[in-house]
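Honest question from a wet-lab person: if I give you the sequences of every part of a complex, can you actually get the arrangement of the whole thing, not just the pieces? Trying it with mine:
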Amino acid sequence: MLDLAVKFEQNPSQELLSGKVIATLFFEPSTRTRLSFESAVNRLGGKIIGFSDSASSSATKGETLKDTIKTVSNYSDLIVMRHPIEGSARYASEVSTVPIVNAGDGANQHPTQTLLDLYSIRKTQGKLENLNLFIVGDLKYGRTVHSLLMAMAHFNATYYFISPKELRIPTEYKMYLDQHNLKYSEHADFKDIVDEADIIYMTRVQKERFSDPIEYEKTKNAYVLKNAMLQNTRNNLRVLHPLPRVNEISTDVDDSEKAYYFTQALNGVYTRQAIISLILGLKN
Amino acid sequence: MAKDVKKLKVSAIRNGTVIDHIPANNLFKVINILGLDHIDNQITFGTNLESGKLGSKAIVKISDKYFVDEEINRIALAAPQAKLNIIRNYQVEEKKEVIVPDEFSGIVKCVNPTCITNNDDVKTKFRVISKKEVSFKCHYCEKITDQEHMVFI
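Yes, you can. This is the full assembly:
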């Protein structure tokens, strides 16, 4: 899939989806993921139907997910779905007559984000194996973090989890890493260890995740990446972020050659082109 | 303990099934899972009996009722150490143990309140990840439910 994405990067506009209809059902708002999917479909010459938040769908009239999916699968060749409820995508795939692409189900998984993360890591490092992966911020609720962690387990990554106490990586993921004999460590701060990183994967620490607002105020600055911190880091280090960013990467990092998050978002289009064409069995 | 057993022997059944070694606090869950509250057969049960293995156990005797394995294995989640005696003419004809299945659907709720099975009309489905201290992973949201958080439907 990543190799196919490389071909789309070399030649983004290919009319593989001509005559096909792709439904994008976003039961909760998402700008980047939706636009990146829609850009991918447009570059492949397909047509898009759908909605961008549940207020404009019949879910507000009380329609069940099953009925929405059954209906929309009559109208489209593939459904891309974002939903706030965990497990909704897998369930949709069981009732749908067309393929479902999970564009995020609650705090569970966000697999297409992970594929674009893998694409970005491979592109910047030249490989996926044996990397030091720093994951910073909200490790408890971040679905991109959970998906990335599991994907990188196939490539013998060493994990550095950096988060406030309240947002630590859940035990089930640590168990997963233990089962796969992978090395990981947990840290409250990353200033002193940042020079060991190959990839820094930043995520947003949201105030509303804290039960104690004082705790948030005390810890929030420990999870902000500033350009000065990158001074003695490895040359191959790249900074990734699933976006949107708020203040966890200070804007002075943007001009660093180690900042990769905007290109990462661009890679999302190529990766999603690859995902859609592989699922539908389309070949040039 | 011997006294309890003796007492229970008094109400021995002629034909039917005895389910022993049910954790006392899960007796009514077992009754519920097997639908014993909806059948007309004679049922006797004892609970809070001393048990070396479980601390406190329960026993159920159902007259003129035999279960197929599939039916009885449903109680494995609530009573993984349960022992069955198949009784014919006051004699134990066969002894059976319950088998914790690899996968099952229904019976219990997923622990995750934001799982699709707790928000839409979707039947739960799980893969068992530990059979000793029973715990299982949701087929849909991938969260793990353990013994402590098990809620029977």
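Two things worth pointing out. The first helix of chain A runs from residue 2 to 10. The radius of gyration of chain A is 19 Å.
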